[in-house]
Design goal:
- The chain has 199 residues and is mainly β.
- It has one domain.
- It is built from 1 helix and 12 strands, in the order ββαββββββββββ.
- Strands 1, 2, 6, 7, 8, 9 and 12 form a 7-stranded antiparallel sheet that branches. It has a 3-stranded antiparallel sheet with strand order 5-10-11. The protein has a two-stranded antiparallel ribbon with strand order 3-4.
- β10 and β11 form a beta hairpin.
- The protein starts with a strand and ends with a strand.
């Protein structure tokens, strides 16, 4: 087996007392075209050429990277609590995965009412060497504070670029689950993406 880059997705649902009520592992195979396009743009090295376009979450082609300044984020996923424009996001859509996907099919918005999830921050876990891999995790919990069940059927990862022509949000991973994850009232779902390279 040669060197590869990939990711895995692990999902947990806990009740209000922290007891795990469901745990699932999903084989990651759903990088969208934006991921490799953005990586190419980041490696270009000439900030005046902007060789690529990514498709933002509104469906518009945008130059990338299009630097606002040399200190602003260009590939950030560490969204703050309540932010539902980027970071790990949850949805109820069932549209089949397509490499040209640029948003979740049906985003569950942030909130504390029915059909909403309270999004906590998206955090990066430390880089580590494990099982012939160099890897790090991206993790986000979200709680159903409403009064009805939410069935999560898709999970995605959206990046943020503070671009010169306005904030840019672009999808880099979208996973459609074979079976919905049920999140009852007062339960918390936590998705962890682990991105790795093998050696």
């Amino acid at each position: 087996m040669g060197v590869e880059i990939g990711y895995k997705l692990e999902i947990e649902v806990k009740d209000k007392d922290g007891k795990i009520v469901e745990k699932r592992k999903v084989k990651g195979n759903s990088f969208v075209k934006n991921f490799i396009t953005a990586l190419y743009g980041l490696m270009w090295g000439n900030a005046n050429d902007y060789p690529v376009n990514v498709v933002d979450t509104d469906g518009n082609e945008r130059r990338y990277p299009y630097l606002y300044s040399n200190v602003d984020p260009i590939f950030e996923v560490t969204a703050d609590e309540e932010m539902d424009l980027y970071g790990i996001l949850y949805g109820t859509g069932t549209k089949a995965f397509d490499v040209n996907d640029y948003k979740l099919d049906a985003l569950i918005p942030h909130g504390d009412g029915d059909n909403q999830l309270h999004y906590y921050s998206t955090d990066l876990l430390a880089v580590e060497v494990k099982d012939n891999r160099v890897q790090y995790g991206i993790q986000r919990p979200a709680t159903n504070n409403g009064s009805i069940v939410i069935n999560v059927t898709e999970i995605g990862l959206v990046a943020f670029d503070h671009a010169r022509d306005g904030d840019l949000f672009f999808l880099i991973i979208r996973d459609v689950l074979d079976q919905a994850i049920t999140v009852n009232p007062n339960q918390t779902i936590t998705a962890t993406y682990t991105i790795y390279t093998t050696f």
